[in-house]
Amino acid sequence: MARGAPRLRRRPSVLALCLAVAACLCGGRNAAAAERKTVGVHELRRGDDFSIKVTNWGATLMSVILPDSKGNLADVVLGYDTVAEYVNGTAYFGGLIGRVANRIAGARFTLDGKTYRLYRNDGNNSLHGGHRGFSKVVRTVKEHVGGGDSPTSLSTTIASTGSKAVDECWRFPGDLDVYMTYQLSPPHVLSVRMNATARGRATPVNLAHHAYWNLGGHGSGPVLAEAVQLLASRYTPVGAALIPTGDLAPVAGTPYDFRAPGRAPAPRATTPTTPWTAASSSALRPGARVRDGATGRAMELWADQPGVQFYTGNGLGGVRGKGGSVYGRCLETQGFPDAVNHPGFPSQVVRPGQVYRHDMVFRFSF
Ligand SMILES: *[C@@H]1O[C@H](CO)[C@@H](O)[C@H](O)[C@H]1NC(C)=O
Ligand SMILES: *[C@@H]1O[C@H](CO)[C@@H](O)[C@H](O)[C@H]1NC(C)=O
Ligand SMILES: *[C@@H]1O[C@H](CO)[C@@H](O)[C@H](O)[C@H]1NC(C)=O
């Protein structure tokens, strides 16, 4: 949501379904140039029991190591062992999704009287930024804060070029500067902060972080022992091709009602619609709580976005990550899907001079 853009007084939160669909690499010279840039793995650490690894390939979160109630450490996010597998991968494991996360119907939208056509990578729709979304670019590491052998903060940046520039892969209007910062703070808190500034033209922006969590440990098998609570009272029903109808329906009496604590959803629940809640402000607020009964690990996700999408990995298919593990769930805070084509949804348009901001805070306990 752009600060300063026209916005509704009551802003709903979303719990939406996304499908992991291949984002093939653009064959052009920009793709080749990006791949020649240096890609590395950076570790942030706080104390001897809390650390993460991030690669500047897509600003991707590769691992989160945490203790459980008995002090046993485990990596609680799905992913791959090597950066090469992320380059190849199609599951958006741990990546930053943009310029517009989720679907844009018909891969087209009209803004300020001009119609923009995007790359179709999900049937007739654009998904997760299209042909070469933000999860498939090399980012520049700007800052490593904390010093010495155990930095606690890492900032990365990319300049996303629009359709008038050389990179024809993305086809969004205008250039965009995008920053993302990972930070660890006590006792066991991971903050993910994103901002984006439009240069030259107004553009839709909807960033999302796509980590799949398994609090039992990435290799512990199905997430059946995990209870999920989503503080979402409304959702966005979808029609054909998972595009929202534009309604905001109450979750009460539907399979998308996760308001009560302690509900354990089916491991591969098929959720054909995209739930949302009403929220009164863009302040940081709790959106989801997850607890693993077996290890006692718990996670509370706070964010400042209108929605949260809960994806149960239905589209992962046979994708195998670290150690062959396949089970996990994605909790993505974001704006509403296809908002650029729904005037009734909170606007995602960022105009030159405005700043898009998106903060997520993961509070872990055990
Ligand atoms: C990339 O994908 C291809 C085709 O699926 C596969 O043969 C290759 O081993 C993969 N490479 C890596 C590094 O995962
Ligand atoms: C794409 O749109 C065309 C024309 O409306 C339609 O015939 C086709 O079935 C659509 N394809 C998908 C995958 O939805
Ligand atoms: C965006 O985030 C970066 C990294 O934290 C920061 O240096 C920059 O000032 C932020 N931009 C704005 C406009 O707030």
Automatic annotation (TrEMBL):
Keywords: Carbohydrate metabolism, Isomerase, Signal. InterPro entries: Aldose_1-epimerase, Aldose_1/G6P_1-epimerase, Gal_mutarotase_sf_dom, Galactose_mutarotase-like, GH-type_carb-bd. It catalyses: alpha-D-glucose = beta-D-glucose. The active site is at H210 (proton donor), E332 (proton acceptor). GO terms for molecular function: aldose 1-epimerase activity; carbohydrate binding. GO terms for biological process: galactose catabolic process via UDP-galactose, Leloir pathway; glucose metabolic process. It comes from the Eukaryota. Beta-D-galactose binds at N102, R103, H210, A211, Y212. Its EC number is 5.1.3.3. Residues 1-33 form the signal peptide. Pathway: Carbohydrate metabolism; hexose metabolism. Belongs to the aldose epimerase family. This is Aldose 1-epimerase.
